[in-house]
Specification:
By secondary structure, the chain is mainly alpha-helical. The chain has 5 helices and no strands. It has helices spanning 2-16, 24-41, 43-53, 57-66, 69-96. The longest helix has 28 residues, at 69-96.
Length: 104
């Protein structure tokens, strides 16, 4: 069972890292299912996953303190997706800037 969950995590993580091929609705559905599973039985694995995705810890704590349990997986999934979109945007901005404009 644990090995199956690890495979699910790796699959989702690899999908998240390839924004160009995203099916937004499907990745959100997959994330919600995975997060529900992790919330119910594998909180440590959830923390490791959130750390890997680099979701703001303060935002996660806020969600846990303010969101009803029935909506928590959806809210966490949205945080993850928004984080991935922000990372991609930042990478594009850095890629598009010329090194000449950097000052040291």
């Amino acid at each position: 069972m644990k090995k199956d969950i690890e495979v699910q995590i790796e699959t989702i993580y690899s999908k998240l890292s390839d924004l160009k091929s995203w099916d937004y609705l499907q990745i959100r559905i997959d994330l919600i299912a995975l997060i529900k599973l992790l919330l119910s039985n594998h909180s440590r694995m959830l923390r490791v996953f959130l750390y890997r995705v680099d979701v703001d810890e303060e935002k996660i704590v806020n969600l846990f303190n303010t969101t009803p349990l029935k909506n928590l997986a959806e809210k966490i999934a949205d945080l993850i997706i928004n984080r991935e979109l922000r990372k991609s945007k930042f990478q594009q901005e850095v890629k598009n800037k010329s090194c000449d404009s950097w000052s040291f």
